[in-house]
Design goal:
Blueprint lengths: L22 E5 L3 H13 L3 E6 L2 H10 L4 E5 L1 E2 L2 E2 L4 H6 L4 E5 L16 E3 L4 H16 L10
Parallel strand pairs: 1-2, 1-3, 3-6, 6-7
Antiparallel strand pairs: 4-5
């Protein structure tokens, strides 16, 4: 599955898809940020899975039941999320990378075009990107289950 970079200016209101009921895995090892993301996603109507703080937990959730999507911090307890991204792509799990590093050149070249949001996260930007990435990617996907 190929992902493209998401330009906020290219996402029009007509391309938005509601997030209500979507199960979104939050992978973040900073508890305050994780709670903030959880609250924001819940205010969008999402069901939050996690938060989880280890790369292994992300992969386990994706393999065991799969969620509708995931917000993934680049660095989870000293391990980078990039090592499992090909597996998540093979599972067709849409995801958004969150990072305090807004310099795309710090990411491996093959992952530079993936949807991402810089931290601190702006709530309106998060909603737009989630609606675009998670909502639109679900329109033709098979039903999937995720254990909380």
């Amino acid at each position: 599955m190929a992902y493209i970079a998401v330009s906020m200016k290219s996402i029009s209101p007509s391309s938005r898809v509601p997030l209500v009921g979507q199960r979104i895995l939050v992978a973040e090892d900073e508890s305050f940020i994780a709670l903030e993301l959880e609250g924001t996603l819940e205010s969008f109507g999402c069901t939050v899975v996690g938060p989880v703080s280890r790369v292994e937990e992300v992969l386990r959730h994706a393999l065991e039941g799969s969620c509708d999507g995931a917000l993934l911090d680049v660095n989870l307890r000293g391990r980078q999320i990039f090592e499992i991204l090909p597996k998540l792509q093979a599972l067709e799990l849409p995801f958004i990378i969150t990072s305090g590093y807004n310099d795309v050149t710090l990411f491996p070249a093959i992952f530079r075009a993936l949807p991402r949001i810089a931290k601190p996260v702006d709530e309106s930007e998060l909603r737009r990107v989630c609606e675009h990435v998670f909502g639109n990617s679900l329109l033709g996907r098979r039903s999937r289950r995720c254990d909380v």
